[in-house]
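Supplementary Data S3. Sequence and structure tokens for construct A.
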Amino acid sequence: MEEPTVPAVLDPSGRDVHGEGAALRARGEAVRVLLPGGVPAWAITRHEVIRALMGDARVSKDACRHWPAWIGLILAILIAIGGYLRYAGDEPTEVNIAKAPSDAPPPAEPPAA
């Protein structure tokens, strides 16, 4: 199948991840996409293609070095998750961990050996 010239725009809300994945697979094994923020990328939809690319020395695995837009995406992610970790200086001062509600059942005991 010949790939359309217009990149697929990924839905940042993730409302239909499975449908979006199926649509990408229908377009081919390597599909041009636009990530949130208009960042161009490739979506590889076949396991064997990913394995071949990861084993190819001509393919960079260093996003920060060869994909300047990645830095902006990393910063956006760090800002978005800023509420999970708060730092003062070099030492973490608080870590917010999701806690089970007080009425949640206790965790299951591991089976006896």
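Construct B, processed identically:
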Amino acid sequence: MKTAHRRRWKQISLKEVAMRLDYKSIIVKRYLLHLSLREIAEQTGGSKSGVSEFLRAFEQAEGISYPLPPGITNEGIFLNNADITEIRFT
């Protein structure tokens, strides 16, 4: 007799999902190292479309640009860019 296996899903906030991408790393890889979207996605564990959408939102953000301000964190990048909340992370 088989028993039903139930997964327990932890509810997480959009911010926690968003913070799974290493924004600083993506920005450095794109603007300093000039890597392709595919290369960045492979190296960061994200999807090519997720990296592309993040960079598009970053480029359109008014409060932040490259080069990044000294000491900025991933959370600081997230908070400075309202469009990030619209990005797909799969």
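Helices lie at 14-18, 23-31, 37-44, 48-60, 74-79. Residues 62 and 81 are 8 Å apart (CA to CA).
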